[in-house]
Prior knowledge:
Strand content: under 5%
Shape: globular
Distance between the termini: 23 Å
Order of helices and strands: HHHHHHHHHHH
Number of domains: 1
Radius of gyration: 20 Å
Amino acid sequence: xxxxxxxxxxxxxxxxxKTLSSAAWLGWKIESNWTDPFIFAFYSIVRPITQxxxxxxxxxxxxxxxxxxxxxxxxxxxxxxxxxxNGAMQGVYFGILDDREHYRTLxxxxxxxxxxxxYLVGRGLASxxxxxxxxxxxxxxxxxxxxxxxxxxxxxxxxLLVALALGMITMVSLGVILGGWALMIKNNIYTLGDAxxxxxxxxxxxxxxxxxxxxxxxxxGYALPLAYWFVLIRRALxxxxxxxxxxxxxxxxxxxxxxxxxxxxxxxxxxxxxxRFFDHQAREKGNIDMVSNY
Length: 294
């Protein structure tokens, strides 16, 4: 089976840049071709607002209507940027699922003269673009209607851009790891990404500070790259409020960036190693052209 899925030697290898751009364009067409452009644009606007509205209602019921409270600001920003986490991680991971289970073209991808991990990253770029639009819309809604104190002149743009880049490297790498793992799973593979996303949502400090967790579980938050990433995002967007987190107040911006760089490098290396391992195992077991019908 291994020989049937090995890409042939070809002088027409498109190279990593062409593979990445073509896969990104394919991913965008898949993301947006289910309806006409007007409805897709309307959906892209309404969806993040409705998600934010659910969070707002929950906050109103539990804490009242003080939207200027630092807890709400941190929660709102964390919820907005978690859309980007899902887009980056599951966009890559779902590339394997869609091509194997839905479109049943994964075996053709494997015999094409391209590198599959780069193709998966390209597929995920489209989801990152869609998620980025949702993040911007959510933040604009919060600034205009809820008076979330994000002032463009006070935003640390350099810190924000660097943090976003490091976070996306980490999340895309995690998506590649999940994609490789999905090659080995025969049943209920769609729940893998959802389960991980739910766990990260709880232990990353996205919507509530890690101090509300039992002391033993806070260690999990410290061990996750997202916890440091969200602190960096909040410090960049709302510097005064972002520095109030008691669990990370003793970390400087430079310390947090160094930690984020370390996590990005670690997960990038893990992505390469684990995907190669799972890829080899999937070829040996004949999983590339397998369809689970789930």
